[in-house]
Structure formats: structure tokens, C-alpha cells
Amino acid sequence: MMQLKDVLDERIIRIGLDVKDKNEALNRLSQLLYENHYIDNVDEFVKDIYLREAEGVTGIGGGIAIPHGKSLSAKQPGIAIATLKAPIQWETLDEGDVDTIFLFCVNADKDFGRNHMLLLSKVAAKLADDELIHKIRKVSSCKEMISYLTGEKI
Q1: What is the DSSP secondary structure assignment for residue 2, as one 8-state letter?
Q2: What gap in Å lies between CA 139 and CA 100, rounded to an integer?
């Protein structure tokens, strides 16, 4: 069974990402996924993210967004994570801005049913913890981010 630590990778985490809007944030995170061999086509992946965005709000409130890249261009499951230098506008349940993004990368065929729902539920459970969210916003390294999310010491 896939664990959260299996899809957390320092190479696809950015602390203090400087972006002006949602589109730039999604494109920058998708580019990271591409550069680290998680996806094979940035444009197709971003298009698939927006298809999912059209189905419903991915800003879950409290400054957190969990967009989903359910795409045939995904080669392996992962979660690209960014804390933002400044909050950006996003469609959210509480109508607030977003300052932390968890972009799910899963293959529409292979991983979706099993891995996507499992990972989504694990991350959602973590993100329900206000104290953890507070810590995540203050991390200074990718290792620290992974440590908080997995509960494992650095």
C-alpha cells in the first residue's frame, strides 16, 4: 500500500515560491514535475488540472489548495508542494486567498482509483490539523516539510 512518504520528494517542493497568480503557480509546479520525470508533457498536464478545476473548488480554505493533475501525461504519482511568498487569488471554500499548494500528480489510467483517493484522504487528514498547517507555513526546508507531513524525524 502506498504511503505518503512514497510520493513526497524534495525535488518537487518549493518554499517561498514567488508567483503572481494561480496559473503561474500551476505552471511552475507542473514544470517542476516535468523536470523531475513525474510527467512527460507540461501543457497537457496543466490542461488536465484545469479540467478538474472546472468540476469544483480545490481551495479547501485556510489558505490551502489541493489541485489535482489526473492526467495520462503523469508517469509516476507525486505531490508537488509550494508555500508561496505571498498569497494569491484562488477559488476557495472560504473565499480567501491561497498561500500553500499541494498539487497531486496521478496517472488517469494506472493510479487514479487506488492511489489518488488514498493519498487525497491521507493529505486531507493532515491538513485538518491547524497546528500542522501553522508549522508547514513556517518551514525553511523541503526536508522539514516532509518531516512534518510524514511525522518522521529529519
Answers
A1: -
A2: 11
Residue % of the chain over a pLDDT of 70: 93
Question: Are 33 and 25 contacting, i.e. CB atoms less than 8 angstroms apart?
Answer: no
Distance (Å, whole) CA 30 – CA 149? 21
Q: Cα separation of 31 and 118, whole Å?
A: 25
Q: List the beta strands (DSSP E) in the chain.
A: 13-17, 59-61, 64-65, 68-71, 78-88, 98-107
- CA dist 61 and 45 (Å) reads 24
Q: What pTM was estimated for this model as a whole?
A: 0.93
Instruction: List, for residues 35-86, the tens digit of each pLDDT value.
Output: 999 999 999 999 999 999 999 999 999 999 999 888 999 998 889 999 999 9
Q: Measure Cα distances from 50 to 18, 29, 47, 54, 142 in Å.
A: 21, 14, 5, 6, 26
At a CB cut-off of 8 Å and minimum separation 6, what does 110 contact?
A: none
pLDDT, residue 27, reads 98
| Half-sphere exposure at residue 55, Cβ-oriented, CA atoms within 13 angstroms | 9
Q: Is the pLDDT of residue 28 over 90?
A: yes
